[in-house]
Structures are given as C-alpha cells and as structure tokens.
Amino acid sequence: MENLTSYLAILALIIIGFLVVKKVASCMIKSVVTIILFLAAIAIYWLYLK
C-alpha cells in the first residue's frame, strides 16, 4: 500500500506540473520543466522506493 501511495504521488506531481507549465510557458520551457519533473520522479523512486 505504501508503494501505491508513492506511485500516485509521483503521478500527481507529473500531471500537475505538466498542466501548470502547459498553461504558462513556451514550448522550450515546457520541455525543460517536463524533463526536470521526470528526473525528479526517477530520483524519488530510486532513493525512496528501491
């Protein structure tokens, strides 16, 4: 159950971040922020869930 909660939190982080950036930023900034969020999700998985 703890892993499911973590996966949902990571998924929510990615979705919310993508939606906010989509509303506000230009294409290049969107790409950079999406990559940063993706890397942050991988780091959270690697450090806390593995």
Key terms:
50 residues; mainly alpha; elongated
**Roughly what fraction of the amino acids lie in strands?**
under 5%
Helix and strand succession? Answer: HH
- Number of alpha- plus pi-helical segments: 2
Helix content: over 70%
Any idea what the radius of gyration is? 12 Å
Secondary structure class reads mainly alpha
Distance between the termini: 15 Å
Q: In total, how many beta strands?
A: 0
| Average of per-residue pLDDT values | 77
Q: Describe the global form.
A: elongated
Low-confidence stretches: none
Q: For the report, how would you describe the main beta sheet?
A: none
Summarize the structure.
The chain is mainly α and 50 residues long.
Polypeptide structure, described:
- The protein contains 2 helices and no strands.
- The protein is mostly helical.
- Helix 1 packs antiparallel against helix 2.
- The longest helix is centred in the N-terminal third of the chain and has 23 residues.
- The radius of gyration is 12 Å and the shape is elongated.
- The model has no long low-confidence stretch (mean pLDDT about 75).
